[in-house]
Amino acid sequence: MAYATTDPLICLTPASLAVGPRIWHHASADVLTAADAAGFITDGGSKGLKVGDYILHLDNTSITGNSSLHRVVTVSATYPGVVDLTDGTVVCAGANAD
Description:
The chain is mostly beta strands and 98 residues long. It has one domain. The chain is built from two helices and six strands. Strands 1, 2, 3, 4, 5 and 6 form a six-stranded mixed sheet that branches. Strand 4 and strand 5 form a beta hairpin. The termini are far apart. The model has no long low-confidence stretch (mean pLDDT 85).
């Protein structure tokens, strides 16, 4: 699946704390490997993403979707600012073995 500009990309860090990296949340039906793909986020510059920011990505395809953490590597200067993210690290696996 591909990123859709209609999926929520929400800044969790208040604008008043603009020093240092910000933390963003993105939920969609995109799996971790899709979010890892170069240029996955196509409008990050217009949303305010900056190099060094973090994105917590939730694969919400099912109740057992994984959450992964990515860091912004590049933001294109060409509007709307295609973004490249680091390979994600799963921070919460959807599986529950108990």
